[in-house]
Write a structure and sequence with these properties.
14% strand, alpha/beta, four-stranded antiparallel beta sheet, elongated
Length: 519
């Protein structure tokens, strides 16, 4: 093996490790809109990648005993390149078949990961053991050869991890990164192939890309109903802003997070957000409110316009979401408004401000940050609440049945911290209906009867039919056979698994025809 061949081999080993990590991180971006950014999703992805590498190592060992031609590495890389391109055209369709409405989300994550990541991981995983065999005559000791090759592969994976996390994903959309990964594999594989094989492979690549571009375009234009006015990637989410009629929708990772009437940007369109006015009705003398979770800033804007709060603080972890709210959801500067780009729990630990109201709207149907639904978190919330203050949170669950686990686990940790805890169904009094549920908690007796005769500054008390809501008010939990959620033990994913596959998902995916990886 000549010097050029050794250099080419080293580059191929490094590139294989690099692309494996790029695909793994992209896999999380592709699967998160469907299955949520949960431990189930990451566990499925990591498990599939590790399994693929194990199979690839074994396959590479077998191949290495049958050939000493270093061009076999190029063949493996070209096959990986072709598969990555093909995967980009059909993964949205596969994900629609494996959506939580059709299969258990754990099975769906593993199946989708096998399709998206399995074949290229196996093919690229075969490269290191073959490379060890190819250079075994160049370096006297086999152990040294193996150490060199696997160190080089690992360095490639490290580079792929950092570059994807801090450069590729923040700057480029998923489709572009997939193309670059495929083209990188193709370019590196061409180093050791004869020109006619490179030409043939290039023609095949073009043949694959042309129909795939058409397929991706069709997926992009049909993934949302309405006019897509903004679409981009942030470090935390795939963000899309969609207009349909006079309504503007904010989607994060494919889930509906906010709705605004462009003709009346300060109104509350989403039904569950209207129930947040119960806070000012219960504490009419409130001066300060904290929102954990910003989204389109619907309720903070409403409170600033219709109530006499001197302080309206909003904590939102994603700076891109804040910028989108300013550009597309009429979030304007106000001396009473404080926007903090932080994790909600982190903010609670560093602020010294106390609030009359704390409203938590950071949970979705298939994702709840585990560290923001534990006994310790609720204790931190209480430490930032005034003595007669009220905590309100929106959670998606049911009042009874297996889909009520997360509700009563939430109730349990709040009941251990507050004397009075109530749950109000938003849309249905039927026990098994999965819906938005508003939880109220306070150490001060809440005069719920006041709500039936009270009125908000904008008349929304009539709009949400408080009398009906009060009739559905739950004062005593139906269930106590739920775990105590703590920082040490918080199986959030298992609690929300029954909810993920319910028909309630249609409300959260409202306006989306199928999952999309478009940027």
């Amino acid at each position: 093996m000549g010097r050029f061949s050794r250099t080419a081999l080293a580059i191929q080993v490094f590139t294989a490790g690099f692309v494996i990590m790029v695909l793994e991180l992209l896999g999380s971006r592709i699967l998160t809109p469907v299955y949520g950014n949960t431990i189930n999703t990451w566990g499925g992805i990591i498990g599939v990648v590790m399994s693929g590498l194990a199979l690839g190592y074994y396959m590479g060992g077998v191949i290495s005993t049958r050939t000493r031609d270093f061009r076999v590495l190029s063949v493996l890389m070209i096959l990986s390149s072709f598969y990555v391109i093909i995967m980009a055209s059909v993964d949205a369709f596969i994900l629609s078949l494996l959506s939580p409405e059709n299969v258990d989300d754990r099975l769906g994550v593993i199946s989708a990961s096998l399709f998206i990541l399995g074949p290229p991981t196996v093919l690229l995983g075969a490269i290191p053991p073959i490379s060890v065999r190819l250079i075994s005559n160049e370096i006297v000791k086999t152990g040294r050869s193996a150490g060199f090759i696997y160190a080089l592969s690992t360095l490639g994976s490290i580079a792929g991890t950092f570059m994807t996390t801090y450069l590729l994903i923040p700057m480029l959309d998923i489709r572009t990164v997939i193309y670059l990964s495929s083209l990188t594999l193709f370019a590196v594989s061409s180093m050791t192939l004869r020109w006619r094989y490179v030409l043939i492979s290039g023609l095949v690549m073009i043949f694959l890309i042309i129909p795939i571009n058409i397929g991706l375009y069709a997926t992009c234009i049909s993934s949302y109903i309405g006019e897509v006015v903004y679409r981009d990637e942030s470090l935390y989410s795939q963000i899309a802003v969609v207009d349909r009629g006079n309504l503007r929708y904010l989607y994060l990772n494919g889930l509906l997070h906010s709705v605004m009437d462009v003709n009346d940007p300060y109104s509350l369109v989403a039904q569950y957000t209207k129930f947040f006015i119960l806070g000012p009705l219960l504490r009419p003398d409130s001066e300060s409110v904290l929102f954990i979770g910003g989204g389109g800033f619907s309720t903070p804007k409403h409170f600033l316009k219709y109530y006499d709060f001197s302080v309206v603080d909003v904590v939102e972890i994603d700076p891109e979401v804040v910028e989108v709210a300013r550009r597309y959801f009429n979030l304007s500067e106000d001396q009473r408004l404080g926007v903090y780009v932080l994790d909600g729990r982190r903010y609670l630990s560093i602020t010294n401000r106390s609030y009359d109201l704390i409203i938590i709207d950071a949970y979705s149907k298939n994702y709840i940050p585990f560290h923001m639904l534990t006994l310790e978190f609720v204790s931190s919330v209480k430490s930032r609440l005034k003595d007669d203050g009220v905590v309100m949170l929106n959670i998606i669950s049911s009042l009874s049945g297996p889909t009520s686990d997360v509700l009563w686990a939430t109730y349990k940790i709040y009941r251990l911290n507050f004397r009075y805890v109530y749950v109000i169904p938003v849309t249905s009094s039927l026990a098994f209906d999965v819906q938005n549920l508003i939880l109220l908690a306070s150490d001060h007796q809440m005069d719920v009867d006041l709500l039936t005769s009270g009125s908000s500054g904008d008349g929304l008390s009539t709009d949400i039919d408080i009398n009906k809501a009060m009739q559905s008010l739950i004062r005593t939990p139906y269930r106590e056979d739920v775990p105590l959620l703590t920082d040490e033990f918080a199986p959030i994913e298992f609690l929300i698994n029954p909810i993920t596959g319910t028909r309630f998902g249609r409300e959260y995916y409202l306006g989306i025809i199928r999952p999309s990886i478009c940027g």
